[in-house]
């Protein structure tokens, strides 16, 4: 089954390992017949400040934010590559989420469920998050309790209706051993061809 896939490089810097992995996934997915849209955070221009208006008078989207949301709304599968910095997203990645995932587009505060959470508006989509880090996966799991993955899965993706979400953890990304990047790329290409 072919899919409409949005591949987003969520690293704030161009020409990184994350960019390479995003391109690897996108190329493999296209080769397998999937429809693929790509974007890179490093190319986007927008005001990162959400401001002090709450949800009553939000800032209008800059063109790059509108393009991002249109690509996300058109997709049935989201693939994001991102680094983990200080246990979380880079600041510009967080700013994108603050600005783009707004009420009326990503969730609806007027229709809360039985526990008071807003109605998610991006249902019917799945996600794959590819995280690069210097923290080994066993340390992330047993010492930090997979906190970063839980934050992305539960407080971002699932909150707006994107589920299931799966994670690929690649470490140590700062100084990979000889041949490691090629092994990671091969693993990502398999996911891309399968549309997973």
From TrEMBL:
SUPFAM superfamilies: Flavoproteins (SSF52218). InterPro entries: Flavodoxin_fold, Flavoprotein-like_sf, NAD(P)H_dehydrogenase_qn. One of its GO terms (cellular component) is cytosol. Residues 4-187 form the Flavodoxin-like fold domain. GO terms for molecular function: NAD(P)H dehydrogenase (quinone) activity. Pfam families: Flavodoxin_2 (PF02525). It comes from the Bacteria. The keyword Oxidoreductase applies. Keywords: Oxidoreductase. The keyword Oxidoreductase applies. Belongs to the NAD(P)H dehydrogenase (quinone) family. This is Flavodoxin-like fold domain-containing protein.
